[in-house]
């Protein structure tokens, strides 16, 4: 015999201690499931509890739970009901937090708790170690363990792989070019949009991110984005121009495959946004010019005041560097009002509306045809 003093009662004591520990673990799991617990502390804590309980049982200090004459003792039955009560409370906690579980895991946990409670109730009824109720109780326990096992497989293996596949598909479906970049600026991983930028994954991985996504105006050493990568400084938003397009760059330090010196580099094409914004501002300026011109028409007392106001409005509010108005006198266009002519462009200007070479510019064409040129 491994333990000479052990008997059927000793086995039941260990079994009862294990079921109490199981119930408390399940209750603790529902209470601290979102709390990070240090593994060594957990290991040594349970190890200490096991050692203490084993010592109490082997030294004969644990209460008697079964004897051959009377069967189960009152203490044993009370402890079984205590386990059931703990399981009821644990089940209530699982119910309260059901939104935090995967549906199948939640269902399996509730089934396991219910089967364990049924087993504990069966364990309060047997009078001999070969009775039918103890057999039924162990069948319920086996089914309970199976439900827990399936829940563990579902939550720790199946679901993570599904999530990994979903994450990979989502990563590749994003329209932004996203790459994981080492501190040296080398591309380690790329989504589909980033691979499209350099034709294939084989051509993308291992390249310098500067050569693919950054402005050609700077070398990698002088590029402000590359400097941020080298120094692991995040960039929340920075616009760059590349090949007649505009891009918004963000940098976020991440941990990638155990490497801490990695930056997530996101490149978003904002060309359309920039063009739309520019068109909006242009239209808004022109509307302002039109509105103020209408106001000047009403408020100006003389033609000269009106023409001067129109020119100044065009420069000040329209964003034009210079504006001038000319009158056609014979075949000549004579400037009569201007604003913003800091370079004396109008000094000695010769614009005509005849067939001479001085009538071939936009002003001459407009004067001859009466159409915008």
UniProtKB/TrEMBL annotation:
Keywords: Membrane, Transmembrane, Transmembrane helix. Residues 171-271 form the PAS fold-4 domain. The keyword Transmembrane helix applies. SUPFAM superfamilies: GAF domain-like, PYP-like sensor domain (PAS domain). It holds the Pfam family MASE3. The chain crosses the membrane at residues 12-29, 41-66, 78-95, 107-126, 132-152. Residues 2-160 form the Membrane-associated sensor domain. It comes from the Bacteria. This is PAS domain-containing protein. It comes from Oleispira antarctica. The lineage of its organism: Bacteria, Pseudomonadati, Pseudomonadota, Gammaproteobacteria, Oceanospirillales.
């Amino acid at each position: 015999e491994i333990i000479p003093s052990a008997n059927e009662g000793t086995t039941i004591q260990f079994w009862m201690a294990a079921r109490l520990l199981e119930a408390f673990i399940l209750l603790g799991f529902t209470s601290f499931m979102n709390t990070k617990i240090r593994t060594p502390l957990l290991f040594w804590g349970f190890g200490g509890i096991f050692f203490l309980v084993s010592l109490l049982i082997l030294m004969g200090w644990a209460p008697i739970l079964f004897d051959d004459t009377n069967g189960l003792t009152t203490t044993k039955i009370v402890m079984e009901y205590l386990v059931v009560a703990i399981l009821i409370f644990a089940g209530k906690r699982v119910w309260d937090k059901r939104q935090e579980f995967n549906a199948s895991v939640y269902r399996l946990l509730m089934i396991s708790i219910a089967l364990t409670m049924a087993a504990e109730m069966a364990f309060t009824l047997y009078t001999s170690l070969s009775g039918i109720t103890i057999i039924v109780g162990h069948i319920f326990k086996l089914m309970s363990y199976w439900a827990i096992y399936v829940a563990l497989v579902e939550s720790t293996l199946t679901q993570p792989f599904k999530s990994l596949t979903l994450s990979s598909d989502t990563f590749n479906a994003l329209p932004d070019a996203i790459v994981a970049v080492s501190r040296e600026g080398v591309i380690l991983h790329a989504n589909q949009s980033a691979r499209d930028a350099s034709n294939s994954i084989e051509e993308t991985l291992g390249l310098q991110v500067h050569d693919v996504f950054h402005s050609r105006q700077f070398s990698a050493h002088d590029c402000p984005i590359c400097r941020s990568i080298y120094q692991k400084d995040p960039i929340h938003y920075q616009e760059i121009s590349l090949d007649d397009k505009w891009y918004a760059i963000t940098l976020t330090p991440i941990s990638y495959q155990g490497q801490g010196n990695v930056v997530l580099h996101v490149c978003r094409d904002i060309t359309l946004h920039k063009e739309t914004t520019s068109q909006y501002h242009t239209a808004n300026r022109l509307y302002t010019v039109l509105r103020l011109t209408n106001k000047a028409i009403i408020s100006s007392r003389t033609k000269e005041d009106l023409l001067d106001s129109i020119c100044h409005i065009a420069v000040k509010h329209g964003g034009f560097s210079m504006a001038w108005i000319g009158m056609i006198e014979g075949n000549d266009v004579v400037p009569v009002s201007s604003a913003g002519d800091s370079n004396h462009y109008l000094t000695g200007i010769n614009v005509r509306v005849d067939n001479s070479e001085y009538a071939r510019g936009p002003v001459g064409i407009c004067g001859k045809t009466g159409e915008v040129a």
